[in-house]
UniProtKB/TrEMBL annotation:
GO BP field: P450-containing electron transport chain
Coiled coil: none
Organism whose genome encodes this protein: Pleionea mediterranea
Cofactor(s) essential for the protein: [2Fe-2S] cluster
Record SUPFAM superfamilies: 2Fe-2S ferredoxin-like
The family this protein is said to belong to: Belongs to the adrenodoxin/putidaredoxin family.
2Fe-2S ferredoxin-type domain boundaries: 2-105
Keyword Lipid metabolism annotated: no
Protein name, UniProt field: 2Fe-2S ferredoxin
Amino acid sequence: MPLIKYIDHSGGEYEADVDVGKTVMDGAMDNMIDGILAECGGCCSCATCHVYVDEKFIPVTGTADGMEKEMLTAVNEPKDNSRLSCQIFVTEEMDGMTVRIPESQY
């Protein structure tokens, strides 16, 4: 089970073991990690699960495209490594990945 690290805007760190096939959003929700609201329940329609993916994991997660990319236009401070955590499906290769939760999510 891959270990995902979540870092909030103030530097607080939280770790969660997330089952392969679940989303990074699921990992946060299942472990009660603040900042990932997931108001739409993971349907890629609200952008309340915005995170910044650690640059070295971009080749593993890929970048946003299609509907996700459109939704990211609605977030505060989008970056090249912005993703909706509901659209990142966990794989074994993501073990040790860090995502940062923007201040705007609080």
